[in-house]
Amino acid sequence: MALTETERKEWESRFRAEAEADDLRRQARDPSEGRRGSKRVHREEAEREAELALIKQQVREQFWKEKGYVRYKDSRGLESWVSPEEMARREASRQSRRKYAHYEAKWGTNLRQAAMFVGVMVLAVVLGLVLGRN
Questions:
Q1: 80-132, pLDDT tens digit by residue?
Q2: How far is Cα 64 from Cα 75, in angstroms, rounded to an integer?
Q3: Does residue 124 lie within any of the structural domains?
Q4: Residue 93 lies in a domain
Q5: 8 A C-beta contact, residue 71 and residue 60
Q6: Quick check: is 11 in a domain?
Q7: What are the backbone dihedrals phi and psi of residue 100, each rounded to the nearest 5 degrees, phi first?
Q8: Neighbours of 63 (CB within 10 A)
């Protein structure tokens, strides 16, 4: 779904505000603090970013749950949010693959081997009769 023009402008202004805040933080650092101070600043920034990432994750999770979406983890371990209809379709697809694989493992291999054996036996009998007449 494409963004409307107002939504696009809103997001642009948010991202611009974030960039300006980052720039102000960089300018606010005092280069004369020394190594110990810069490590403290880096640690504080890392803690702040971790806290912001957690808040962002919680807000996104709450948003998708409010919309009725379901968390889905694919075969690669990546998580995404899908609609309930999409989740039902994926589960049905997964179950149909499981049934086929189960059927294939239980009957398919043995059935193919039996058919091959019968085919070889029929060929041997036919060849025996053809060669026996001459």
A1: 888 889 988 988 887 776 665 555 556 566 778 888 999 999 999 999 999 98
A2: 21
A3: no
A4: no
A5: no
A6: yes
A7: -65, -45
A8: 11
